[in-house]
Amino acid sequence: MRLRAALARLWHEQRLVVIAFALAVGLTAFFGGRMVVRALYWSNPAHHRQMPEPWMTPGYLARSWHLPNGALDAVLGPREGARRSLEEIARDRGIPVAQLLDELTAVLPTLPPLAPGADPDQPPK
Question: How far is CA 2 from CA 16, 65, 70, in A?
Fold first, then answer.
């Protein structure tokens, strides 16, 4: 009962602080949970060096193969706007998706991976 009285007093005297605190806790939980889910997903070896599939995006493949962002631009062409799947890229280029997947399957093992600790958004030195 004491806790309820204390919270009621805080709510009446410091409403903005309570709201700000609740918002901060909520945002921390959301982004912290998102970070944990992504860390668990990418730490699973089954998600490393995956062969290309039509649903994948260039960014997903780059992360799976530990490549810098834009490493696949030579094969796929420059990125335009929103995320597009390999299937959409093949359709836009007017080629069968199987042909694009075969090109990627041949090129991916030849690309050098990022150095440990390197920023994938920075060009290689």
Answer: 22, 56, 58
